[in-house]
Target: DUF1285 domain-containing protein
Amino acid sequence: MSRINLEPITQTDGAYPPVETWHPECCGDMDLIIKANGDWLHEGEVIQREKMVTLFSRILWREQDEYFLVTPAEKVRIQVEDAPFQIVRYEQSLDEQGRQIWRFFTKTNDVLTLGVDSDIELFERADALLPYASVRHGMWASFHRNVFYQLVEQATLVESKEGMLVQLVSAGKAYTLGTFHEM
Model:
């Protein structure tokens, strides 16, 4: 099993390290998997320390369909079942221009502002189109089921040629959470 040295990237201010500037060679696989429900497992056990999971999430990097934990000196491959992040909470407010905005909070303490630093796209999963929010470096966050249903209740229905769109408007941009066709 490969271990990764976290010494050079320890941060106390909550900032994201510049992983996009680090290009070490891959030095193997780590027995770490991010489950579809957002749990991070190391050697089959859920990592209980929230700060450790948050730290790992800050050094997460995606290349094509593979995920890595990366430092300036090391890069180890990990497994991700679906999306590496999961949105577990949201809030709705107004921005400086008085426009409605939605903020999403991930299980790993990321804050995403829809229409500003995050967008929503629909991806096909298990014969359904599901919404995912962009995070950073080409990575995505799924929506916890409860959050998704709460957002759908607050969304607007918009008629289109594809059917009825379930949409949120944030920072002046419309985002589709899903579609349905009349039966």
In short: The chain has two domains: 7-80, 85-178. The mean pLDDT is 91. Residues 145-154 form the longest helix (10 residues). Helices lie at 50-58, 145-154.
